[in-house]
Design brief:
The structure is a homodimer.
Chain A lengths: L8 H4 L8 H14 L12 H8 L3 H13 L3 E4 L3 E4 L20 E2 L3 H12 L4 E2 L12 H9 L3 H9 L8 H9 L14 E3 L1 H13 L5 E6 L3 H9 L3 E8 L3 E2 L1 H10 L2 E6 L13 H14 L3 E4 L24 E6 L11 E4 L4 H12 L4 H12 L3 H26 L5 E2 L7 E5 L6 H10 L2 E2 L1 E2 L12 E5 L6 H18 L1
Parallel strand pairs in A: 4-15, 6-7, 6-9, 9-10, 10-11
Antiparallel strand pairs in A: 1-2, 3-7, 5-12, 7-8, 11-12, 13-14, 14-17, 16-17
Helix pairs in contact in A: 2-4, 6-14, 8-14, 9-10, 9-13, 15-17, 16-17
Chain lengths: ~500, ~500
């Protein structure tokens, strides 16, 4: 097992400097953080305790903490002590952007997909495959209490009436209240409730394009997007996408000039699998360009609320002047995947999406809509999101650190700005599908990179999800993956 | 207002015979039944009471009841008395089969549909438009009790896990246990749970055909089927359909010889809007023919359990030898429209339907599946269905009798064998759309016949639903409709 930290702070401190006692202590603590002894989000021993344990003076220990704070390894919390900061950049080098010739391609990943999805859903597996949030991080107790206190008359209505095809007005109003960083125009009547985000994307896609038409997507992208494109008989035009900033606008313009593009599906916030946040200026520029060319954008913002930074990023829809951005999201990653409640704000395509929704399944189930609306009304959602975000950030960081510890030298890794996924570039000789199969035998689910593209260029990539609470079991799983990859590297 | 009963028993008894006292009494009671004084399903006054009221001897009153029983007007229930029998045939003449040249047509009813659906969903309207079952006829109290007693651990799973894309295994097992008259091969693993029946139909249709291909449907047919065909860019080939026995096999064979047909969507049991039950031999013959020509049949059996006769009719799938019948149904008419739980038994197309389900919305909501499975397991479903069927039969009968009372002479009416709908042929001069608009102004929702076809041949037809409990309000609504039609007839 290699234990390599590329470009990290540890490397910056030359061995010669470690004759200062406080620096030596700081060095040791940092190493323990990198080795997963102290986990992201965990409290470090107090100054007094370290003083007692090490025999170093209070001042020296204090100086060590100041040094660690400077290095960005720990953060002080008032009246509580020093905590390990979840630090996602600089753990391993980020994969480089992969260039390829952008041509529309027929998608044919579906058959591969279903066998992979099956293994991801197997409860006996260590689930690093799907982007699923740990059940213990979701407010199921509150939702259960809400169910049990539904008044009888309300319950009768929920069960015995067909819901409005656009969705419950109460829920749409609650969603509309939360759309400030997303869209300045979204009222309840602009929103269509769907069976999760992927139905929203699928309905929006049917609204903007027909079979045989070409849709621009990021490369790599979320496999489900490719599957929906495949099912609808459309072509995917994959564009080079920077793992740190997203879609390359110049490449996009060129592609639009060369191809007849009917629309695009983008994930600008906490991209799956790359984890980037598209910079505001880029969002604005992409929307302006698409508005200018009348190209609709389907914006998948399912992870928008799961930011690791200080602020919720804006959505592309907020820059839209023509109603050509169709926004899609869901509560599957933040409240409950089982309830299947997502929504679309389809802009100018509202009537088409509404009609498609009505015709394909009449309406979304009433009970789920009631529960989500009830939770939003209770005011607990923002508090819940704060806790959830902090947990996800720590999990992502601990997973990344474990990858750095257990994977062979040369592994590259994204530093996600939010969301649930890490994207790993393995040695060129390693086949992600083989990693998938070997891992499956060892009861670990991951996603092979080829699922995220119509090309074969992510053959040596894998995606690891960080939705579950960090545990010894997950650490062991990452270690096994590292072993498998090392062996395949040969 | 005309009060005309065509071909009924009343007409069979010549006036000359009414000198027998018991016959005179029987005659009077029958007329009261036809006038809606005694409603289908209602108990008649006891023999003693009638003896006291009329001064006729006990023997005479008893003879009158025997006569009414012979005529099929009443039925004796042991130790309880005589009840008005819901009698659906012979109330008004059945509409004749409408012939037309069978050519594939592009469907374009969607825009009309959404405005009509909107008015049907308006809670302020008298809802004779949609095929909705009266909330008071659905077991919402039992379902509510079930929700409130879900164990916490189970609830956590329901909320926080992604359900199996094929649906909950417990529910699929329960459905599989009920498939005896439907399919001899359907095990849990052959079933895919969907968001209601229409999603099942839509997924099955996507599995068997692509855009531009031709699908055979009955004429008239359920509007939603046409809308799904329209949304998927397919063509509908409407075939002449007998209001009493269904699809004309000879016409079907001819159409298949003349056109490239990719599949068909049929509603053999309690067709919407016609209400017929396709005879067993016809079902068998249609399946044999389609098996022979490798033409898949999507069988919409949503009303299969809502029979007015003695026995649940068999499904076409039970005759299928090649896995080419894709069976679709749901619990929306029998348990809860709000839960949105339907299913498909897609035969040889199982993997495609499963994949399409996975890709379009991942899975159906877990909670609804749990509740339906729980209800089926409780053993209450068959008992509930018995009560429901009896209520629906009475409602259909009372509505039909009211149509006979309040609609102008010349009106024709189907005699449904099950389900929720009556299909009315009005005078050729009356436009169903105008009836729809006038009725809407009077706060009554109905479905204009043109919605059920790609042709204009049902211009003077309307569909009236009988899902709601018979009431003075509904009677008044039917009277208003009769008034509107009489006026439009001019």
């Amino acid at each position: 097992m290699h234990n390599r930290l590329g470009g990290g702070m540890a490397a910056d401190t030359a061995a010669g400097e470690v004759h200062f006692r406080y620096l030596k202590l700081a060095e040791e603590i940092e190493q323990k953080v990198n080795m997963g002894v102290y986990l992201a989000g965990e409290k470090l021993p107090s100054i007094r305790k370290l003083h007692a344990q090490t025999g170093l003076s209070i001042t020296t220990v204090y100086q060590a903490f100041i040094e660690l704070e400077k290095r960005g390894i720990v953060e002080a919390r008032q009246k509580s002590g020093y905590y390990v900061k979840p630090l996602l950049h600089q753990i391993l080098p980020t994969p480089k952007i992969k260039r390829h010739r952008a041509v529309p391609k027929k998608v044919t990943i579906n058959n591969l997909a279903s066998s992979i999805v099956e293994s991801m859903g197997d409860p006996g597996m260590l689930r690093l495959g799907g982007t699923v949030v740990d059940p213990d991080l979701l407010p199921h107790k509150q939702l259960m209490a809400a169910v049990k206190s539904i008044p009888a008359a309300r319950f009768k209505d929920l069960l015995t009436l067909y819901e409005n095809p656009m969705g419950s007005l109460v829920l749409r109003r609650q969603i509309a209240k939360r759309t400030l960083p997303i869209s300045h125009r979204a009222a309840a009547d602009d929103i269509v409730i769907t069976n999760g985000c992927i139905e929203a994307v699928s309905l929006c896609l049917q609204a903007i394009a027909g079979p045989g038409e070409t849709i621009v997507v990021e490369s790599p992208t979320y496999p489900w997007i490719l599957q929906v494109i495949e099912d609808l008989g459309m072509f995917a035009l994959e564009l080079c996408t920077d793992p740190e900033t997203g879609l390359d606008l110049a490449a996009f313009k060129k592609a639009v000039d060369r191809n007849r593009v009917s629309g695009c599906i983008l994930i600008p916030n906490f991209h799956n699998p790359l984890g980037f946040e598209m910079p505001v200026e880029r969002k604005q520029a992409v929307v302006a360009f698409c508005n200018d060319r009348d190209i609709p954008i389907i914006e998948d913002d399912i992870h928008g609320d799961l930011y690791f930074g200080r602020r919720r990023p804006v959505a592309m829809q907020s820059f839209d002047k023509k109603g050509l951005v169709l926004y899609c999201s869901s509560f599957s990653k933040t409240l409950s995947p089982g309830l299947r409640i997502g929504w679309a704000i389809p802009g100018a395509f509202r009537d088409q999406v509404k009609r498609l929704k009505l015709n394909s399944s009449i309406a979304t189930t009433s009970m789920g809509q009631y529960l989500v609306a009830d939770f939003l009304k209770s005011g607990s959602y923002d508090r819940h999101l704060r806790t959830l975000r902090s947990a996800l950030k720590n999990q992502a960081c601990n997973t990344a650190l474990a990858v750095a510890r257990y994977f062979p030298q040369g592994t590259c890794l994204t530093a996600p700005r939010g969301g649930l996924t890490l994207w790993l570039e393995l040695d060129a000789a390693v086949d992600g599908m083989q990693v998938f199969h070997e891992a499956r035998k060892r009861k670990i689910a991951i996603l092979p990179g080829i699922m995220c593209s119509t090309t074969r260029k992510y053959k040596n990539f894998i995606r690891i999800s960080c939705g579950f609470r960090w545990s010894k079991k997950i650490e062991k799983g990452i270690a096994v993956l590292g072993e498998i990859v090392t062996k395949l590297k040969g």
